[in-house]
Design brief:
This protein is α+β, with helices and mostly antiparallel strands and about 270 residues long. The chain has helices at about 30-40, 70-85, 125-130, 155-160, 165-175, 210-225, and strands at about 1-10, 20-25, 45-50, 55-60, 65-70, 95-100, 100-110, 110-115, 120-125, 140-145, 150-155, 180-190, 190-200, 205, 235-240, 245-255, 255-270. An eight-stranded mixed beta barrel has the order 1-2-3-4-6-7-8-17. It is globular, with a radius of gyration of 18 Å.
Length: about 270
């Protein structure tokens, strides 16, 4: 038996954000078992909390198909679970070891923030992937923050909401670019935007509220000199087309980009492995 939580991230209200399954006390589980559990939960990510010699804890992150070096909402939801379960002592600063390195997290009241990895940004030939989206988008860039996203802007929240990508074509185009998928954004106000993230190449047709997608958008805006349109503190809204309403707080500072928000535990129990 292992302690188990399902945490809804980027929301204070259950069933409105992006869920992550968290297996606590995961020491002793092998890679095959972790991947099988992640396939069984069938969420975009399942995580496993382990002891660490270099941080407060070590986190392994799995999609239904593979392990990831880093992911945003699983990091935040797992930190929430670790604190709630007493896996780590409650404090304002946390350090998480994962395949991407050691991440710095900050507990700010009811919200937890993580500073993302430094973004690696490159230009791409967007002709193929652009045709798969079912909506006109502009200024495509490939952004690597541990997870790799193709980022582009759409003219309005209404156009973004109406987007219906060709999932199989998008998966193939994403594979060509060695990317998880596409994150699209549209301005909805001076310090607000709407976001959608599609990752069919990772068996995720649409991610309800995507942490690394939002990290990538912020890095994209800073790289292209457009951050002033939203400011270095802005809010992203995501998931409405899936019956959710996630809110991501984004902070862009000289030392990096941070994303955060509240989390709430929806399931609290144990996982039977035999």
């Amino acid at each position: 038996m292992r302690r188990f939580k399902q945490v809804d991230v980027f929301t204070a209200a259950p069933f409105r954000g992006n869920p992550v399954a968290v297996v606590i006390d995961a020491e002793g589980l092998d890679d095959e078992t972790m991947q099988r559990i992640a396939c069984w939960t069938n969420l975009s990510e399942t995580t496993f909390l382990l002891p660490s010699k270099v941080a407060d804890y070590r986190l392994r992150i799995f999609t239904p198909l593979q392990e990831l070096p880093f992911a945003g909402h699983p990091t935040l939801g797992s930190a929430h679970a670790a604190l709630e379960a007493g896996f780590v002592a409650r404090k304002k600063q946390l350090r998480q070891e994962c395949l991407a390195g050691v991440m710095e997290l900050t507990v700010d009241g009811a919200e937890i923030f993580v500073r993302g990895p430094e973004a690696k940004i490159s230009e791409i030939d967007a002709a193929h992937i652009g045709r798969t989206l079912g909506v006109a988008a502009k200024q495509f860039l490939r952004v690597d923050v541990g997870a790799v996203w193709v980022i582009a802007e759409v003219a309005s929240p209404e156009a973004l909401a109406a987007a219906k990508p060709d999932q199989s074509a998008l998966a193939a185009a994403s594979d060509e670019l060695n990317a998880a998928g596409v994150t699209l954004f549209a301005a909805s106000g001076k310090s607000e935007m709407h976001v959608r993230s599609f990752a069919p190449a990772h068996a995720i047709p649409e991610d309800p509220v995507c942490g690394t997608g939002n990290l990538s958008v912020a890095a994209y805006l800073r790289h292209t000199g457009q951050l002033q349109r939203f400011g270095n503190r802005y809010a992203a809204r995501q998931g409405m087309q899936m019956g959710r309403d996630g809110r991501v707080s984004v902070r862009v500072d000289a030392d990096g980009v941070r994303i955060g928000g509240p989390s709430v535990t929806c399931i609290d129990g144990s996982l039977t492995l035999k």
